[in-house]
Amino acid sequence: MAEKEQSIALSKEQMERLIGLGMDTSIASMVYAPILSRSSHFTLKAKSPTFSKEFWTKRRCAIAGEDIYEKLHGRDVPAFTTQDLLELMPPQILIGEMVCSLIIIKKMSGNSLVTYAVTDENGLDSLREDNVWEEPTLIQALYKGLLWLIENEYFVIEKP
Question: What does the pLDDT look like over 78-92, one tens digit per residue?
């Protein structure tokens, strides 16, 4: 994936992993779509209103044909942006008996650091090594944090 795409949205592979874990991707702002209908190459683009299954009413399906949605969007993979991930991340979680707040820091090195930590009026009180994610881009640090939340059951994925 191109470096520019990596800072805009999660990779197709990262999204497939989240989808495999059962993540609801309905808030995803972007989508990886095949360049051609049978292509194995995908391109990142803004999600169009026609991507939504709600757009495809019975009347639209009757006019366009039953399988038009699958032909248009059947292989598309939704993609979360940084803003989407920020909306998904809970502002606070309870670790043991401590209320930990989501902290995002841009380090002087240029890296982004995301963590859940206990805070007080003086700033950070304590950091735990198992929930500090430092990456060159904010979106990658948020992705690692979201995986940690899912794996440790702080982010509950509803099973159908």
Answer: 899 999 999 999 999
